[in-house]
Amino acid sequence: MLAADYRGPFRIRAARKPMPGIEHPQDAILRVTRSCICGSDIHLYRGLVPDTRVGTTFGHEFCGVVEEIGSAVEDLQVGDHVLVPFNIACGQCHFCKQKLYGNCHEANPAATAAGGIYGYSHTAGGYEGGQAEYVRVPYADVGPLRIPAWMDPDDAVMLTDVVPTGYQAAEMGGIQTGDTVVVFGAGPVGLMAARCAWLFGAGRVLVVDHLPYRLAFAQRYGPAEVYDFREIDDMALFIKKETDFLGADVCIDAVGAEAAGSALHSLFGKRLKLEAGSAIALHWAINSVKKGGIVSVVGVYGPTGNMIPIGNVLNKGITLRANQASVKRLLPRLIEHLQQGHIEPKALITHRLPLEEVSDGYHIFTAKLDGCIKPVLYPNDGR
After folding, report:
1. Measured between alpha carbons, how far is 117 from 223 in angstroms, rounded to an integer?
2. Do 103 and 240 fall within a single domain?
3. In this structure, how many other beta carbons lie within 10 angstroms of the beta carbon of residue 115?
4. Do 142 and 180 belong to one domain?
5. Gyration radius of the chain over CA positions
6. CA dist 53 to 59, 86, 120, 173, 372, Å?
7. Are residues 305 and 362 in the same domain?
8. Looking at residue 49, what DSSP letter applies?
9. How far, CA to CA in Å, does 305 sit from each of 44, 162, 276?
10. CA dist., res. 273 & res. 47, Å (int)
11. What is the pLDDT of residues 136-176, one digit of tens each?
12. Are residues 193 and 288 in the same domain?
């Protein structure tokens, strides 16, 4: 089969690889019809995530058609069109029973922190990802969800990660009616977090980035007030001036390890890799939120440490909330929002490419070329 093949930092290609097979009675094999390139895939592509091995197939956002099922699979049938949450969950462990599907203890038992994620390094279980014509899906009765006949597959694939992650970012913020919410990062997750903040009753939504085309998109899609951090000398002071010198009620870090805005953090976190990426967006969030406010973190960082102003967290009485999105828990609510027209997932897709052009897709997305917000690959001609 054809699949994305990681060859080292900034090197990926489409190559022929062996077909996946049933390895456990609860497995299914999926013929992939759509697979997104995620902003967190760029962390892998740049070499920022430990134990990202040459030969890995990336891709944790995908949907497709069931081609084969294991002997213990009861809920799925061959031919079902399904979307697959990015987190791999057994459905039975201590954490899954709490609906913390992103923290499943069985899917990645060797790790003390990360759960199981498709195509996201051996740190996240070593599973092959969905940027391929076919993919093995473990615990097939737990994660996959049949795509309703009325749903556009382009919307469906966005429900595997981007939409639930953005929604959970707003949810973890504990947004109250009239709150001022600041979202750092105007990538797909940040845009969705801004959009979803309104669903929780936000009174103002501000988005901070530095790319003009992304800020223009955020202004339209959020809709949100937008600010270029290159024009701001002191982020915390700027946010305070915008909020009667109180600070934002909620700040959301939707950037993670790739954050620009600080030469020092970029040097230590991205170039020398002495930290788990550049944490400047998290600094801004902590320093810009009000006393007693909430900082929600969905931007991805590596498993090593970062220098952050923990003293400010304590002295300001900040609540810090973070997790991988619990996709399975959120899907019923998100499907309702989609039906009611409250969210427009496929509107984030700007680039559609065949799987053969996966290398171009990564380059365009990483280099922020051609107004790229969200690239989607179409293995098997999207069928």
Report:
1. 31
2. no
3. 25
4. no
5. 20
6. 14, 19, 10, 35, 27
7. no
8. S
9. 17, 25, 6
10. 10
11. 999 999 999 999 999 999 999 999 999 999 999 999 999 99
12. yes
Domain boundary among 284, 301, 322: 322
For the chain, helix, strand, coil in percent to 5 are 30, 25, 45
Strand order in the sheet with 180-184: 225-228, 204-209, 180-184, 248-253, 289-297, 319-322
Q: Are residues 171 and 266 in the same domain?
A: yes
Domain of residue 334, CATH code: 3.90.180.10
Q: What distance separates the 2 farthest-apart alpha carbons in the chain?
A: 62
CATH classification of the domain holding 274? 3.40.50.720
DSSP letter, residue 331: H
What sign does the CA torsion over 118, 120, 123, 124 have? negative
| Torsion region of 178: left, alpha or beta (phi above 0 gives left; psi -120 to 50 gives alpha) | left
* Residue 338 Cα to chain centre, angstroms: 18
Name residues whose C-beta falls within 8 Å of residue 368's C-beta, 6 or more positions apart in sequence.
Answer: 211, 214
Are residues 332 and 313 part of one domain? no
CB atoms within 10 A of CB 333: 13
CB 176 within 8 Å of CB 227: no
Residues composing the chain? 383
Statement: residue 303 has pLDDT above 80: no
- What backbone torsions phi and psi does residue 103 show, to the nearest 5 degrees? -115, 20
Q: Are 186 and 209 in contact (CB under 8 A)?
A: yes
Encoding tokens for residue 204?
A: 């103002």
C-alpha to C-alpha distance for 124 and 144, rounded to whole angstroms: 19
C-alpha to C-alpha distance for 137 and 205, rounded to whole angstroms: 38
Q: How far apart are CA 355 and CA 70, in angstroms?
A: 27
- Output the CA–CA distances (angstroms, integers) from residue 161 to 27, 118, 169, in the order listed: 21, 11, 12
- Domain with 355, as residue range(s), is 2-161+326-382
Over the stretch 316-349, which tens digit does the pLDDT of each residue have? 999 999 999 999 999 999 999 999 999 999 999 9
pLDDT at residue 272, as a whole number = 66
Task: Specify the number of domains making up the chain.
Answer: 2
Residue with tokens 């099922």: 69
Question: 71 and 101 share a domain?
Answer: yes
For residue 177, give both structure tokens: 């009616």
